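Friendly challenge for the regulars: who can give me the C-alpha coordinates for this chain first? No prize, just bragging rights.
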Amino acid sequence: MAGLPSQIAKHAAALPEGTPIRANGLLHLGNRAAVDQALSRLARRGLLLRVCRGVYVRPIETRFGIRAPAAETVTEALSVLWGETIVPSGGAAANVLGLTTQVPVRLVYLTSGPSRTLRLGAQIIRLRHAPRWQLVSPRRPAGLAVRALAWLGPDSVETALHAVARRLSAEDLDELASHCAIFPSWLAEPLTALAIRG
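First reply, four minutes later:
Bragging rights claimed.
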Protein backbone atom coordinates (compact mmCIF):
# COMPACT_ATOMS: atom_id res chain seq x y z
CA MET A 1 0.00 0.00 0.00
CA ALA A 2 1.57 3.26 -1.08
CA GLY A 3 0.67 6.90 -1.37
CA LEU A 4 -2.43 8.43 0.15
CA PRO A 5 -3.99 5.24 1.63
CA SER A 6 -0.70 4.56 3.41
CA GLN A 7 -0.59 8.08 4.83
CA ILE A 8 -4.18 7.83 6.05
CA ALA A 9 -3.53 4.41 7.61
CA LYS A 10 -0.50 5.84 9.41
CA HIS A 11 -2.56 8.80 10.61
CA ALA A 12 -5.36 6.48 11.82
CA ALA A 13 -2.91 4.23 13.69
CA ALA A 14 -1.85 7.18 15.86
CA LEU A 15 -5.42 8.03 16.93
CA PRO A 16 -6.99 6.87 20.21
CA GLU A 17 -9.53 4.03 20.07
CA GLY A 18 -12.89 5.05 18.66
CA THR A 19 -11.78 8.38 17.19
CA PRO A 20 -13.93 9.22 14.15
CA ILE A 21 -11.99 9.60 10.89
CA ARG A 22 -13.57 11.83 8.25
CA ALA A 23 -12.42 13.10 4.88
CA ASN A 24 -12.57 16.76 5.88
CA GLY A 25 -10.04 16.06 8.63
CA LEU A 26 -7.59 14.62 6.10
CA LEU A 27 -7.56 17.31 3.41
CA HIS A 28 -4.00 18.24 4.37
CA LEU A 29 -3.03 14.89 2.79
CA GLY A 30 -4.84 15.28 -0.55
CA ASN A 31 -7.90 16.61 -2.35
CA ARG A 32 -11.40 15.59 -1.27
CA ALA A 33 -12.06 13.09 -4.08
CA ALA A 34 -8.71 11.34 -3.54
CA VAL A 35 -9.22 11.19 0.25
CA ASP A 36 -12.76 9.77 -0.16
CA GLN A 37 -11.44 7.13 -2.53
CA ALA A 38 -8.56 6.23 -0.19
CA LEU A 39 -10.93 5.88 2.79
CA SER A 40 -13.19 3.57 0.78
CA ARG A 41 -10.19 1.50 -0.27
CA LEU A 42 -8.95 1.18 3.32
CA ALA A 43 -12.44 0.11 4.45
CA ARG A 44 -12.61 -2.56 1.72
CA ARG A 45 -9.26 -3.92 2.95
CA GLY A 46 -10.48 -3.99 6.55
CA LEU A 47 -7.96 -1.39 7.68
CA LEU A 48 -10.80 0.99 8.58
CA LEU A 49 -14.40 0.32 9.61
CA ARG A 50 -17.14 2.42 8.04
CA VAL A 51 -19.46 3.48 10.88
CA CYS A 52 -21.89 5.50 8.74
CA ARG A 53 -21.72 7.70 5.68
CA GLY A 54 -18.45 9.63 5.76
CA VAL A 55 -17.33 8.38 9.19
CA TYR A 56 -14.74 5.66 9.77
CA VAL A 57 -12.86 4.26 12.77
CA ARG A 58 -9.71 2.21 13.11
CA PRO A 59 -10.13 -1.44 14.13
CA ILE A 60 -8.17 -2.40 17.25
CA GLU A 61 -5.43 -5.01 17.17
CA THR A 62 -5.20 -7.22 20.25
CA ARG A 63 -3.25 -10.35 21.04
CA PHE A 64 -6.47 -12.26 20.24
CA GLY A 65 -6.90 -10.64 16.84
CA ILE A 66 -8.69 -7.66 15.35
CA ARG A 67 -11.80 -6.20 17.00
CA ALA A 68 -14.01 -3.17 16.56
CA PRO A 69 -13.52 -0.30 19.00
CA ALA A 70 -15.86 -0.30 22.01
CA ALA A 71 -19.35 0.99 21.16
CA GLU A 72 -19.35 3.28 24.21
CA THR A 73 -16.07 4.88 23.10
CA VAL A 74 -17.31 5.42 19.55
CA THR A 75 -20.67 6.87 20.61
CA GLU A 76 -18.97 9.26 23.05
CA ALA A 77 -16.67 10.46 20.26
CA LEU A 78 -19.59 10.84 17.83
CA SER A 79 -21.50 12.78 20.48
CA VAL A 80 -18.70 15.35 20.51
CA LEU A 81 -18.27 15.31 16.72
CA TRP A 82 -21.97 15.83 15.97
CA GLY A 83 -22.73 18.07 18.96
CA GLU A 84 -25.45 15.67 20.13
CA THR A 85 -26.21 13.99 23.42
CA ILE A 86 -25.83 10.23 22.96
CA VAL A 87 -26.45 7.94 25.95
CA PRO A 88 -27.13 4.23 26.55
CA SER A 89 -30.79 3.20 26.31
CA GLY A 90 -33.11 2.79 29.26
CA GLY A 91 -32.88 -0.99 29.12
CA ALA A 92 -29.10 -0.83 29.47
CA ALA A 93 -29.45 1.73 32.30
CA ALA A 94 -31.94 -0.50 34.15
CA ASN A 95 -29.52 -3.42 33.86
CA VAL A 96 -26.61 -1.36 35.24
CA LEU A 97 -28.76 -0.22 38.19
CA GLY A 98 -29.86 -3.80 38.91
CA LEU A 99 -33.53 -3.09 38.11
CA THR A 100 -33.62 -5.89 35.55
CA THR A 101 -31.51 -8.95 34.88
CA GLN A 102 -32.24 -8.72 31.16
CA VAL A 103 -29.16 -7.84 29.17
CA PRO A 104 -30.12 -5.92 26.02
CA VAL A 105 -29.38 -8.03 22.94
CA ARG A 106 -29.28 -5.02 20.64
CA LEU A 107 -27.05 -2.02 21.14
CA VAL A 108 -29.43 0.92 21.39
CA TYR A 109 -28.48 4.45 22.35
CA LEU A 110 -30.70 7.48 22.78
CA THR A 111 -29.77 10.69 20.99
CA SER A 112 -30.83 14.31 20.74
CA GLY A 113 -30.12 14.03 17.00
CA PRO A 114 -31.96 12.07 14.32
CA SER A 115 -32.50 8.32 14.59
CA ARG A 116 -29.97 6.37 12.54
CA THR A 117 -28.06 3.11 12.35
CA LEU A 118 -24.31 2.75 12.86
CA ARG A 119 -22.14 -0.24 12.08
CA LEU A 120 -19.02 -1.35 13.92
CA GLY A 121 -17.84 -4.31 11.90
CA ALA A 122 -20.52 -6.97 12.50
CA GLN A 123 -22.09 -4.97 15.33
CA ILE A 124 -25.15 -2.81 14.66
CA ILE A 125 -25.78 0.23 16.88
CA ARG A 126 -29.16 1.91 16.72
CA LEU A 127 -29.41 5.56 17.66
CA ARG A 128 -32.99 6.51 18.57
CA HIS A 129 -34.11 10.10 18.88
CA ALA A 130 -35.38 10.68 22.43
CA PRO A 131 -37.17 13.55 24.18
CA ARG A 132 -35.00 16.02 26.06
CA TRP A 133 -36.09 14.80 29.51
CA GLN A 134 -34.66 11.31 28.83
CA LEU A 135 -31.26 12.79 27.94
CA VAL A 136 -30.59 14.77 31.13
CA SER A 137 -27.33 14.30 33.05
CA PRO A 138 -25.45 12.29 30.40
CA ARG A 139 -22.84 9.91 31.85
CA ARG A 140 -24.04 10.64 35.41
CA PRO A 141 -25.87 8.32 37.82
CA ALA A 142 -28.91 10.66 37.90
CA GLY A 143 -29.22 10.43 34.11
CA LEU A 144 -28.86 6.66 34.25
CA ALA A 145 -31.73 6.57 36.75
CA VAL A 146 -33.98 8.73 34.53
CA ARG A 147 -33.44 6.50 31.51
CA ALA A 148 -34.02 3.33 33.56
CA LEU A 149 -37.25 4.73 35.01
CA ALA A 150 -38.43 5.87 31.57
CA TRP A 151 -37.81 2.37 30.22
CA LEU A 152 -39.70 0.73 33.10
CA GLY A 153 -42.61 3.15 32.63
CA PRO A 154 -45.42 4.59 34.78
CA ASP A 155 -46.69 1.26 36.12
CA SER A 156 -43.35 0.43 37.77
CA VAL A 157 -42.16 3.89 38.77
CA GLU A 158 -43.03 3.75 42.51
CA THR A 159 -41.20 0.48 43.19
CA ALA A 160 -38.32 1.24 40.85
CA LEU A 161 -37.83 4.74 42.29
CA HIS A 162 -37.27 3.32 45.78
CA ALA A 163 -34.79 0.77 44.42
CA VAL A 164 -32.97 3.52 42.49
CA ALA A 165 -32.90 5.82 45.55
CA ARG A 166 -30.98 3.18 47.52
CA ARG A 167 -28.29 3.10 44.82
CA LEU A 168 -27.79 6.86 44.40
CA SER A 169 -25.97 9.31 46.62
CA ALA A 170 -27.82 12.28 48.17
CA GLU A 171 -26.09 14.49 45.59
CA ASP A 172 -27.31 12.27 42.72
CA LEU A 173 -30.86 12.30 44.12
CA ASP A 174 -30.75 16.11 44.32
CA GLU A 175 -29.56 16.23 40.71
CA LEU A 176 -32.39 13.89 39.71
CA ALA A 177 -34.95 16.05 41.53
CA SER A 178 -33.56 19.21 39.90
CA HIS A 179 -34.91 18.01 36.53
CA CYS A 180 -38.50 17.47 37.76
CA ALA A 181 -39.80 20.50 35.84
CA ILE A 182 -39.20 18.77 32.49
CA PHE A 183 -40.26 15.25 33.50
CA PRO A 184 -43.72 13.88 32.67
CA SER A 185 -46.06 14.01 35.68
CA TRP A 186 -45.97 10.23 36.21
CA LEU A 187 -42.25 10.57 37.05
CA ALA A 188 -42.11 14.09 38.51
CA GLU A 189 -44.82 13.55 41.14
CA PRO A 190 -43.40 10.44 42.86
CA LEU A 191 -39.90 11.90 42.60
CA THR A 192 -41.00 15.14 44.27
CA ALA A 193 -42.75 13.14 47.00
CA LEU A 194 -39.59 11.11 47.55
CA ALA A 195 -37.47 14.27 47.77
CA ILE A 196 -39.86 15.77 50.36
CA ARG A 197 -39.81 12.59 52.47
CA GLY A 198 -36.04 12.19 52.08
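Residues 59 and 93 are 27 Å apart (CA to CA). Strands lie at 49-52, 55-57, 60-62, 65-67, 86-88, 107-111, 116-120, 123-129. Your move, everyone else.
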